[in-house]
Write a structure and sequence with these properties.
Elements lengths: L1 E6 L7 H17 L4 E3 L17 H16 L5 E12 L2 E12 L2 E7 L23 E4 L2 E7 L9 H7 L4 E6 L7 H16 L2 E6 L1 E4 L2 E4 L3 E3 L5 E4 L6 E6 L2 H12 L18 H9 L11 E4 L21 H19 L5 E4 L4 H14 L4 E5 L7 H14 L2 E4 L3 H15 L6 H22 L2 E4 L3 H6 L12 E2 L6 H12 L7 H5 L19 H13 L4 H6 L4 H13 L1 H4 L31
Parallel strand pairs: 1-2, 2-3, 6-15, 7-8, 8-9, 16-17, 16-19, 17-18, 19-20
Antiparallel strand pairs: 1-14, 3-4, 4-5, 6-7, 9-12, 10-11, 12-13
Helix pairs in contact: 1-2, 7-8, 7-13, 8-9, 8-13, 10-11, 15-17
């Protein structure tokens, strides 16, 4: 039997467009000889719909759209994610649901049991947990269906439905990307397939949605945990796998006869320190082992036409730096497209951050839709001018030059009576950044270009960014990218043609807001800073423990102080692509007014 996993790029709220995409994928799957097609979690309304779920008309529109999907399943079995609603005496309940449709009719629905409530997830705000784990008996195919979080922990719905006889377990997902996430998923899925003695088909969403990127990389594993199909990363794909139903039945028979399965208690890989332990407490609402397992039967539609051509080879995942770059490209492209923009503008300074953002934008949108603005001040060096022009030329993007010297002098003249008697300091430096932000936003307003902020995670962490200046913009592409990774990404991009001049990579980082300025005047060296930030920001390691791991106590205290005192800035920053296990914003929700200083070195 040929299985198809349709990793589609849907848009939150575009129910008609999403349904059209689903129906198109059903047609392609049918033409490819598939008999079972699975779609991602909440594919009909888009993921995550957030507070759209509080609008009854939105939920109703998603329910009505299912009729079109069901009608398109002639000759197929389809598993499709949607929002379900139940009326109870206490009011309406919503469920994160999977519809199983067979040959043009609705067969049954599974409601997600384990509702994540950590990191970027907030499902308990909207959904109730399901109360059953049905087995769909489709002739020779005993099928189990689960949703995302259900499979991350040993036991629960996947174990129940496979113990009831399922030989194929379909798990539909909208699993947000972070670097290396696909490896964690496959490690976990390998353990589950071996433990359940079942083929596991894991279909994942692909595309960008605000800060989140979904990487696709859907995968099918056999009962021994071997990958037999894998989809493309960061692209829509129809992943095909041929399952031998007789062999799957024999594997289940051997398991029932007493052959020892691999332990399903193998620990799931962690996304960040302590996160998975917290999930175990937050996502399980009752003893899943006592859920009912009803059996819903229907014939498996006959195969149509001649035997299909062999399934395509297993897609190879990208290398670690490439996958981050491709995530940034996809996240930017979809943010621009899904929000109705066509062109973007970048303040190009001659530094590595702005050059990388310009390269990502050119790759995401095409150079003809990217505009670079060079805004020199009295402190801008000729080296910066030359490198900015060289980067723009290599990227083939338009450059606009607007000198800010006169505007800066006008600001200083206006402020001189107020600043009299005080030496020049960061106030005058930030005036330059805010002039640039104002001019860039003027270009954005006049021409309808989306302004891309160019700050990186190291700077945002420490507050080394100017509110209403270099933080201005509609989207911050590398907001979650540490500075050391910025250099790695630039070097990786240059492997396919040098677009970021070597001089940019070789020069010391500088904001050029005063004579001879260097980032190292205000921050520890990035190779020292970034490991401390990873521990403190992403892993919540207390400062004294960071020191115990070998970092200088005075440096740790300084970095922690900068991070804690800059929360108010980050709260006003534009959204940006999440590529680490814990990004600022949805992931890390710290109070701005916060006097806690526990664990100080």
């Amino acid at each position: 039997m040929r299985l198809a996993l349709a990793q589609v790029n849907v848009t939150v709220g575009d129910i008609a467009g999403n349904v059209a995409r689903i129906i198109g994928a059903l047609k392609h799957a049918r033409a490819a000889g598939a008999r079972l097609v699975a779609f991602p979690e909440l594919a009909v309304p888009g993921y995550p719909p957030e507070d759209l779920l509080l609008r009854p008309d939105f939920v109703e529109a998603n329910l009505e759209a299912l009729d079109q999907v069901v009608a398109a399943t002639r000759g197929l079995v389809a598993v499709v994610g949607f929002v379900d609603r139940a009326r109870t005496p206490a009011g309406g309940l919503l469920y994160n649901a999977a519809l199983v449709a067979v040959d043009g009719r609705r067969l049954g629905v599974y409601h997600k049991r384990r509702l994540p409530n950590y990191g970027v997830f907030d499902e308990k705000r909207y959904f109730a947990p399901g109360e059953a784990s049905p087995l769909f008996a489709l002739g020779p195919l005993p099928l189990g269906v689960t949703i995302c979080e259900d499979i991350w922990f040993a036991g629960g719905p996947p174990a129940l439905v496979t113990r009831a006889g399922a030989t194929v377990l379909v798990n539909i997902n909208a699993s947000p990307y972070h670097a290396g996430k696909w490896r964690e998923r496959e490690t976990m899925l390998r353990a589950r397939a071996r433990a359940y003695r079942a083929a596991v088909a894991y279909v994942n969403l692909v595309g960008g949605q605000d800060e989140l990127v979904f990487d696709g990389a859907s995968v099918v594993l056999d009962p021994l945990g071997r990958v037999i199909a894998r989809g493309a990363a960061f692209d829509e794909d129809l992943v095909l796998a041929d399952l031998d139903l007789d062999a799957l039945a024999r594997a289940r028979h051997e398991a029932a006869a007493g052959a020892a399965p691999a332990s399903e208690d193998a620990p799931a890989p962690v996304e960040a320190a302590g996160v998975r332990a917290a999930v175990a407490r937050l996502s399980v609402t009752r003893d899943d082992d006592h859920l009912p397992t009803p059996v819903i039967t229907a014939p498996l539609p006959d195969a149509a036409g001649p035997p299909p051509a062999p399934a395509p080879p297993v897609a190879e995942p990208p290398d670690p730096v490439e996958e981050v770059y491709r995530a940034l490209v996809l996240g930017l492209r979809d943010y621009v497209r899904k929000n109705g923009f066509r062109e973007v503008v970048v303040g190009l300074s001659g530094g590595v951050d702005s050059a990388l953002v310009a390269a990502i934008a050119a790759d995401a949108l095409g150079p003809q839709r990217v505009h670079a603005a060079f805004l020199p001040s009295p402190y801008t060096s000729e080296e910066s001018r030359r490198l900015a022009a060289e980067a723009a030329s290599r990227l083939r993007v338009e450059v606009i030059e607007i000198a800010i010297d006169g505007v800066f002098r006008a600001f200083l003249d206006a402020l001189t009576p107020v600043f009299a008697g005080r030496p020049a300091d960061v106030a005058e430096e930030n005036v330059q950044a805010r002039i640039r932000g104002t001019l860039l936003m003027a270009l954005s307003n006049k021409f309808g270009w989306l302004l891309l902020a160019t700050g990186n995670k190291s700077e945002y962490s420490c507050g080394y960014a100017t509110l209403y200046g270099d933080m201005a913009g509609g989207f911050a592409v590398i907001k979650d990218v540490p500075k050391t990774l910025v250099y790695d990404l630039a070097r990786w991009r240059n492997q396919s043609g040098e677009v970021i001049p070597a001089g940019i990579l070789a020069r010391a980082p500088t904001a050029e807001l005063r004579p001879g300025q260097r980032d190292s005047d205000s921050l520890p060296p990035y190779e020292v800073l970034d490991p401390i930030l990873k521990l403190y920001v992403e892993e919540d390691v207390p400062p004294d423990e960071i020191v115990a791991r070998g970092h200088d106590a005075a440096t740790v205290a300084r970095v922690v102080r900068m991070v804690d005192h800059s929360e108010y800035k980050r709260r006003q920053a534009p959204p940006g692509v999440k590529i680490t296990p814990k990004a600022f914003g949805r992931d890390r929700r710290m109070p701005i007014s916060n006097a806690y200083r526990g664990g100080s070195p």
